[in-house]
Amino acid sequence: MADAARVSPTARPLARLSAALAPWALPILLIVMWQAAAHTGLLSSRILPEPWAVATAFWNLAASGELWTHLKVSLWRALAGFAVGAGLGLLLGLLNGSSRRAATLLDTTLQMIRNIPALALIPLVILWFGIDEAAKLFLLSVGVFFPMYLNTFHGIRSVDAGLIEMARSYGLSGWALYRDVILPGALPSILVGVRFSLGLVWVLLIVAETISAQAGIGYMTMNAREFLQTDVVLVGVLLYALLGKAADWSARGLERHFLRWNSAYQ
Amino acid sequence: MQINPVEEKQVSQAADQALSHVRHGVHLSLRGLNKRYGGRTVLDAIDLDIAPGQFVAVVGRSGCGKSTLLRAIAGLEQPDGGQLRIGDGSGSSGGGNGSGGTPEVRMMFQDARLLPWKTVLQNVALGLADGDGVGEKRARAALASVGLAERAGDWPAVLSGGQRQRVALARALVHEPQLLLLDEPLGALDALTRIEMQQLIESLWTRRGFTAVLVTHDVQEAVMLADRILLIQEGRLALDQKVALVRPRARGSAHFGSLEQKVLDKVLEI
């Protein structure tokens, strides 16, 4: 203990730096090996272009502005799908969680619909909405709806009954009870729903954009495949990964902000 | 800290208002109170009168109905029969404002039941009319009276069990209750914290003069705090024991010991 304390002033920044870098060691090593394999001809560029080529393709797409157009379209689709699906999920979750009557009327139906995978609806969705934005929005919304609905419903139902009893005995009722006790109590679960939904929205977006589209990252990727531009395909794949990570990161940010009272999120 | 003279005046006004109607506890009367769960009778025709300002402890084995009695008085359980009168009116759920006809009844639970997403101060101010700033001042004063003024901005999660119960006590006291119901509030605390809390409750009760009903499984605690000890067995009053010891009471005294033994013997009789 004494030794560690004496060493720590110099060792601590170093230790912190290496702890911060440690998760990146493996990806960096893989990229280096990949570059080496492509460079020596061990890996054909038909299968995987060298990382450097991917970086160049990324740079060219960004410089020409093409990348941003596609990114904007994809982002907008994801946001719109998330807003509609998660918004409805939240509303119905709140309604069914708070009202037994609403739950008896609606929950069974929703649970039945839940068992249909959103992606299995694609042929039907194309028949109904054609291959426009509406079809994509529908697919995304349906997929995102259920994680949000289930977690909100469960969150409201599992609010500590003792706290509600206490709040009632201190004169809280109606909206005040909802705002101060029920909603904050359900929030950890609701935010789990947000996180699931945000993760799912990208998966669904990839599929939706590869069906048919005139713009978007999926379109860019499919287009590049036609012309065997594996480097551009990889740029698309990397973009999806980055966007997914960004979504997860913002969901965590929400949790850290709204659940700062909870020691698990501090 | 700078003290704004206007604020100070408001605080003292609030304190004066408090004194005008709170000094006196309320009378509590039960007549043939019944409560059944399914086919089982939990409270069997309880008759009870508690004088204003009296400190009553209710003891008994677990499952004897003592908590149900307290919850019925608090309005958290609906009795199946009999009469319950608090003050001049009938039973209240504690929602009254104390200044009108409904007496102010507050309950302290075994678990502190603080809202974890509200700060200590916000928890104490729960249910106070907010917006005018007077509520917050009263909450701060209540927090100071339980010795936790400096923890106002903390989350409940970082407090110890004893501190949480003190916050819960402040939350009850800020409403200036005329009847304070305590449902084993010290049951989960360690021995030393418990003694501290007992002293705190006793001193606040002496100063404010509310009527207090304490449910406890600890006979020593009952002898320590109460003017009168009630023993409940199988839903009925089995003992009504006056405690005539002078306060502050010393656990070591012979009187204390013999009284504790007497009640304990009666509890263990069945």
Give a quick summary of the entry.
The complex is a heterodimer of chains A (266) and B (270). Chain A is mostly helical and 266 residues long.
Structural class of chain A: mainly alpha
Main β-sheet description of chain A: none
Q: Shape of chain A from CA axes? A: flat
Report the span from N to C terminus of chain B. 59 Å
Strand order of the largest sheet of chain B: 6-7-8-3-9-10
Q: Kindly give the count of domains of chain B.
A: 1
Average of per-residue pLDDT values of chain A = 88
Superfamily (CATH H level) name of chain A: MetI-like
β-strand number of chain A: 0
User: What order do the helices and strands of chain A follow?
Assistant: HHHHHHHHHH
Structural class assignment of chain B: alpha/beta
By CATH's scheme, which homologous superfamily of chain B applies?
Answer: P-loop containing nucleotide triphosphate hydrolases
Distance between the termini of chain A: 27 Å
> What does the oligomeric state look like here?
heterodimer
Q: In the CATH scheme, what's the topology name of chain A?
A: MetI-like fold
- Discrete helix count of chain A: 10
Strand content of chain A: under 5%
Large-scale geometry of chain B: globular
Largest interface: A-B, 19 and 23 residues
Which whole number gives the mean pLDDT of chain B? 85
- Uncertain parts of chain B: 1-22, 90-100
